[in-house]
Design brief:
single chain; mainly alpha; 69% helix; rod-shaped
Length: 118
């Protein structure tokens, strides 16, 4: 397997797309495979330059920040949902139940009208 600097750069940039595709499909297998290939690319002698190493570090940090951000958003969302649920329960507890209308009497239990008694 011959790996060039350009190929490593391409793999690095493609890994960002793979990351977002994995998030969208909730399946990170392809991204993990791409990232393993990037890792292998960096171990091939002569396949990296200082610019490629810098790009690799930048991509790695970017993905790390994105992961941390998504985790924090998920935790904040779950916390806010729990707070809203507690607020809803508290509000429901303070509301009085709707007064129910008494059922109308059925025709069978009504008194006969005066005109029908003639």
């Amino acid at each position: 397997m011959v790996t060039t600097i350009a190929a490593v750069d391409d793999h690095l940039l493609a890994s960002i797309d793979g990351f977002f595709n994995g998030l969208q499909t909730s399946d990170m297998k392809d991204f993990m495979s791409q990232w393993d290939n990037v890792d292998k690319d960096f171990t091939v002698e002569g396949a990296t330059s200082p610019d490629t190493s810098s790009l690799g570090l930048g991509v790695s940090q970017c993905i790390e920040i994105l992961c941390d951000t998504f985790i924090n958003l998920k935790m904040q969302t779950e916390q806010r949902a729990a707070e809203l649920g507690e607020n809803l329960i508290a509000v429901q507890g303070t509301m009085s139940p709707n007064p129910s209308r008494s059922p109308s009497p059925s025709r069978a239990t009504r008194s006969p009208s005066p005109s029908s008694q003639l």
